[in-house]
Amino acid sequence: MAKSELKKITEDQLGEGKLIEGDTLAILGKMGDNMVDLGISSPPYNKQGKQKGWLVKNVVYNDYGDALPERTYQENQLSVLDEIYRITKPGGSFFYNHKIRWNKGTMFHPMDWLRNTKWSVKQEIIWDRMIAANIRGWRFWQVEERIYWLYKPIGDQLIGKELNSADAKMTSIWRGVPENGKKNPHPAPFPLWLPARIIISILGTQKSGIVIDPYVGSGTTALAAKILGHKYIGIDRSPAYIEMASERLNNGSREKDKIQKELNLHQVEESFKERKSQGKNVGKYRLPSSIRKRESGPTMPLIR
Question: What is the pLDDT of residues 161-185, one digit of tens each?
Answer without folding.
Answer: 899 989 998 999 999 988 765 565 5
